[in-house]
Fold:
Amino acid sequence: MAVSSRRLQKELMDIKKEGTPVGIELLKADDFSKWILSVEVLGDTVYKGEKFALMFRFDNQYPISAPAVQFVVDDKWSAPEHPICASILGSEWSPVLSVVSVCVTIQSMLASCKVCPCLTAHTRAALLTGRGFSSA
Amino acid sequence: MSSDYEISDDEHEYYEYDDEDEEMVDAEDGSASEIEVDGFGNDFKVGVRQERKIYEVDYSALSQPEVERIMQADVDHISSIFGVEPPVAAILLRHMNWNKEKLIEKYMDNASAVAVAAGVELPPREPTPPPSKSSSSRGSMAGPQRTTRRLSADKGSDSKGKRASPPIDAEPFVCPICFDDSQTEFLSLLCDHKFCAGCWKEYITSKVRTEAECMITCMAEGCNIAAPDPFVEKALADDRETWSRYQELLVRQFVACIPHLKFCPYPSCTYTVSCPAAATKSSLTQIVPIVTCGASSAHVFCFGCPIDADHRPVVCAVARMWLQKCEDDSETANWIKSNTKECSKCQSTIEKNGGCNHMTCKKCKYEFCWVCMGPWSEHGTSWYSCNRYDEKASIEARDAQTRSRASLERYLHYYNRWANHEQSAKLSMELHAKTEKKMEEMQITSALTWIQVQFMKKAVDVVFRCRMTLKWTYAMAYYLAPGNQKELFEDNQRDLERAVEELSELIEAPIDPETIMSLRQKVTDKTVYVQKRNEIMLEDTAKGYLEGRWRWNTHVEGFDTD
Structure:
């Protein structure tokens, strides 16, 4: 079995056994190439009460190479084409990180975000994928 | 026309004598060939040539092992000064971009800070500094560490809470990356973050092969500890290809850091050229550092700029300006300027392609006269002819147009010649193939030997090289300020050009067994003459740079404007 599959299987087992951190849910993990998780921002933030869906795509180099992560808008799974440009998914990616730890990082990124709440989810996703947002 | 020809013939006669002298001199050099096409064949030979021509630059070509030896010398030097293992010294040097002086200064100032930043020492922990680590780490991390040998240290690292890995004694250690419990061999750097050998290999291979990264750090999140070379080699195990790629990356990083070194830009070439004469920007106004790497005489490039070709006699800054100009769309704008006029009211661009001079702007409906550009209303009833040609406003409008048209024509004059030489040079390479055939024929049909028919190949080579020189002289002439110097330059250019065209004609002449001997004589003589003209051209421009004789008609980077 390829390293990426074994590793993802292990992550899946951990999620099933120990559950996910608060606010994070596994929505879809039918195979070892694409997973979808939801992230809810906790506490009193501009995103209060909203759920964001994140799509993870893995190549067979995972976890040596980072997964491609992007927001999917509403329930339609139609996403802006750009993967999120967070430093932990680029230069600061480490193979010891996991799907859940990436979700936690993005959750805290959203929590510290000070963007006006009247923006649509789509715009917000675009903002987060933009080049300016690189501090993890 | 005929008198012109006479003169050139005389000149030819004169140089024929001269040529023989040169042949004699060359024969003394111990050269095997009859015509020594000096300055072409030997131009780029590395090293031992005693007399360097004024237009050549002093440089040496280094193979990868030679560069590695230079790197090793630096590493050993630092290693002995700091008292650290060579692999540690290498990481420190890479971290400081091989600036030895700066490294020594900073290290003497605060050794620990430098070591931590470079990833050869663990950062001091805030609450309880590790008791044994900081003192022993620097010396001991040179090689890969097998965790099996360091069980006691593992416990120490766990207690420091670095990574939540299960305690070693309780259950067998599982690599936190692949979770493959069949793995038995684990490796870690001095930070004690253990991963299985397979994952290390994958990780380093991915860094080296896909990211072209030679600074490998620990895989753990946020861990900055660098992997020393012996560790990398061990982790890569039997993958020698990646290991040699890694070494090449190290050399490239070194070369990129040192101003007087440059990596050969030709694909998959691993040679480096050292050219201290051209290491500073200011030197590039005085010399044109054309070099060739030791791997192949075809790997000709400029040390001072990214042009992968011989752009003598033009200095880098001018060559770049010219190429930029040729590439730019600015010439399209020039065309628009020359072929169109602006509506004097709304500034829309209008091209007149027929009809009378009574123009009505399509956009703003302004009516004007195409000839004088003045408003049509002032023309009264004098339809189809403009007698207001001398009005002040009209003169100004027309002057601007003329100037722009003249500048375009001037550019095209130089550009056409530039492009023509490039094209002809390409054709002469095609001719080369044909020449090869001709030479074979000649060996059969005449009593000439192989050595003796080489004159054709030499002639083609010379034509090619001289066309390259000529090509660039047009770029230079375009930017030269008018004056005596420019005239002298253009005289040299003209002489070279005429000689090259004559030689071109000769080598394309049909080969007739009866006339081979005389053709050979003619081609040989002409080749030497052409080459001599080329020398004069290059020497004179090179001298001019050293004397600061050339004046430009525009601001050129690095030159004083006067």
